[in-house]
Each structure stands twice: as structure tokens, then as C-alpha cells.
Write a structure and sequence with these properties.
The protein is 80% helix and 0% strand. α1 runs antiparallel to α3. By secondary structure, it is mostly helical. It has three helices and no strands.
Length: 64
């Protein structure tokens, strides 16, 4: 188990989410073929959704 506190975990997850969102425009409108970009973008969006869900759950557990 990790020694990471809920606050530390929340901070790390929020930073990771911000980084994913920061690279999103370049990522979605890359120079690769449409199919490659589409699949990569779907994966990218799934990571964002997963992080948002995890952050929401963690905030709920912390009483935020």
C-alpha cells in the first residue's frame, strides 16, 4: 500500500488531469491519419474521464 495521503493523491490526480487536458488540442488534431488520431483520441478521452471519476470519488470520500 502507498503511504500517499488522500490530499496528496488528489493533488497528483488533478495535476495529471490538467496535463492531459493541456495536450488535448495538439493530440486530437495531429498529423497522423484520421483512424490513428481517432483511436488515440478515444484512449486519451478515456483517461480523462477515468481521472475525473477518480477525483470526484476521492473528493466525496474526503467530504469535499
Amino acid at each position: 500500500m502507498s503511504n500517499e495521503t488522500n490530499e496528496e493523491r488528489l493533488s497528483r490526480l488533478e495535476q495529471e488531469l490538467a496535463e492531459l487536458k493541456a495536450v488535448l488540442p495538439e493530440h486530437c488534431y495531429g498529423t497522423k491519419g484520421y483512424v490513428d488520431v481517432h483511436h488515440a483520441s478515444a484512449s486519451h478521452w478515456q483517461k480523462i474521464e477515468d481521472l475525473e471519476d477518480e477525483i470526484k470519488q476521492l473528493k466525496t470520500e474526503m467530504g469535499h
